[in-house]
Structure to design on (396 residues):
């Protein structure tokens, strides 16, 4: 039997070969050089952040408040994703700067440029990887960080106080707005109800007063000792109260005393009482839901702060491609190895400038000088403009 009698064998195809074959060799090589130092920087900066931001405080609580070490370790692990999310853009800048500097020092980039590869083409792999990290950062900040931060706060407060934390205990105020019919027949948006509760213990509201303007022809005032939300019937159960029905001219039409009464009112006051307003414990959907719930109520300082955080939750992940561009551009020119320390210092100064400028924009927004989108995106745009200008200068 000769070899011609055997059917020809097909070359084996490994998983993801299509991806490897579809990416140019130069891009695969540069990305392969970028990933290890990036992952190392993520681990290093996350560890530093946890040590400075959490570990010292937990150590004090273990010594002074008797916090069990097992709970402290659990809180430490739950806080870790928050610092990992912050380390992504920082790691991109530092890792890209060092890798491109090393490629320049080894004359690899000079060889590529001698083959006609432009500076813009050399930074393209860094931008692609940065955009991938941008998506990861966004998903991480939305799906992981708020949930772990909430759980860390609950775990720590339960261990120290022994009760369910994070609800507003006094002065629950909710204003509901809706469409109201005018005498002319038109409708306009106006105040329909004011809900006030003096206390909230996590289950029951006490000392309630509800002003209801939603009924045409009369208003009603509901005063009750306590109320709970009936989740089965989607209503409020009020106890030991009085309902005053008031005509438009101000006279009482009816007074009704009750021991228990069900009223079809929105669940929103309970959502306000139970909701956390710490932005690091809320994702974008939580913030939008809270802003829709509180509407135009009086605590504008809290609403203003959350509107800015909502825009920053979009703008922060996009600092990744900005830092990636700046890091690659700073390292792309061949320099003497003695200047690498200077470049590292420049990278740290850029990071410091970003966070300092972000704080300045926050202050200008709170003072009414900037709008929330401008305050959130201005640091990104400023550093991006500097990076593009530097890249254009290097490409000449």
């Amino acid at each position: 039997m000769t070899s011609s009698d055997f059917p020809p064998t097909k070359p084996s195809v490994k998983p993801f070969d299509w991806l490897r074959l579809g990416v140019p060799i130069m891009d695969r090589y540069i990305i392969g050089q970028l990933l290890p130092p990036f992952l190392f920087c993520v681990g290093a900066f996350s560890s530093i952040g946890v040590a400075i931001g959490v570990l010292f405080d937990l150590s004090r609580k273990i010594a002074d408040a008797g916090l069990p070490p097992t709970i402290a370790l659990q809180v430490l692990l739950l806080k870790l994703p928050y610092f990992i999310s912050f380390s992504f853009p920082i790691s991109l800048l530092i890792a890209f700067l060092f890798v491109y500097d090393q490629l320049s020092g080894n004359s690899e980039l000079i060889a590529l440029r001698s083959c006609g590869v432009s500076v813009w083409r050399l930074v393209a792999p860094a931008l692609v990887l940065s955009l991938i990290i941008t998506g990861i950062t966004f998903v991480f900040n939305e799906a992981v960080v708020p949930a772990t931060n909430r759980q860390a706060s609950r775990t720590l407060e339960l261990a120290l106080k022994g009760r369910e934390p994070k609800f507003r205990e006094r002065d629950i105020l909710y204003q509901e707005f809706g469409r109201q019919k005018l005498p002319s027949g038109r409708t306009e948006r106006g105040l329909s109800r004011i809900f006030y509760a003096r206390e909230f213990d996590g289950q029951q509201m006490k000392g309630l007063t509800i002003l209801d303007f939603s009924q045409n022809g009369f208003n009603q005032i509901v005063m009750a000792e306590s109320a709970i939300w009936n989740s089965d019937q989607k209503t409020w159960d009020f106890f030991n109260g009085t309902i005053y029905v008031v005509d438009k001219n101000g006279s009482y039409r009816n007074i009704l005393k009750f021991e228990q009464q069900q009223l079809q009112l929105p669940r929103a006051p309970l959502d306000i009482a139970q909701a956390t307003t710490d932005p690091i414990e809320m994702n974008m959907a939580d913030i939008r839901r809270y802003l829709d719930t509180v509407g135009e109520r009086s605590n504008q300082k809290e609403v203003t702060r959350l509107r800015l955080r909502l825009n920053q939750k979009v703008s922060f992940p996009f600092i990744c491609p900005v830092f990636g561009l700046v890091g690659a551009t700073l390292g792309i020119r061949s320099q003497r190895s003695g200047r690498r320390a200077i470049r590292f210092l420049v990278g740290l100064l850029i990071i410091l400038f970003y966070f300092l400028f972000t704080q300045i924009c926050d202050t200008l927004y709170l003072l009414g000088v900037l709008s929330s989108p401008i305050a959130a995106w201005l640091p990104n745009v400023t550093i991006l403009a500097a990076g593009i200008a530097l890249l254009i200068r290097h490409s000449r």
Observations:
- Residues 256 and 353 are 64 Å apart (CA to CA).
- Strands lie at 170-181, 187-200, 205-212, 218-230, 235-247, 252-263.
- Residues 13-19 have pLDDT under 50 and may be disordered.
